[in-house]
Predict the 3D structure of the following.
Amino acid sequence: MKPAADLVLLGAALLLISGAYGDLCSTVKEDVALFLHGSTDEYVAYVARYNTDDTAVQENARLLKQCVDDKLSKEDKQNASSGLEKIYSSRLC
């Protein structure tokens, strides 16, 4: 797996571990699903729901999503999703 995919998994795991367990899991799950498998516009629209006035955050989300789409193959994204499913199925979620 590429380092970028490792970073996605690590970031999601840290969010899930540090959060309020089930309350955060569904939000992270939706965010990561759009991040890995959605379009750039879908992901930026999702981020904008939480950062409506901050165009810098939205632009960074767009750049990050484009970078991930350019660097990760479909197989890399599927591997990241498979790894995250193990986290989502834990008793903490």
Observations:
- The first helix runs from residue 3 to 18.
- Residues 3-88 form a domain with the Histone Acetyltransferase; Chain A fold (CATH 1.20.920.50).
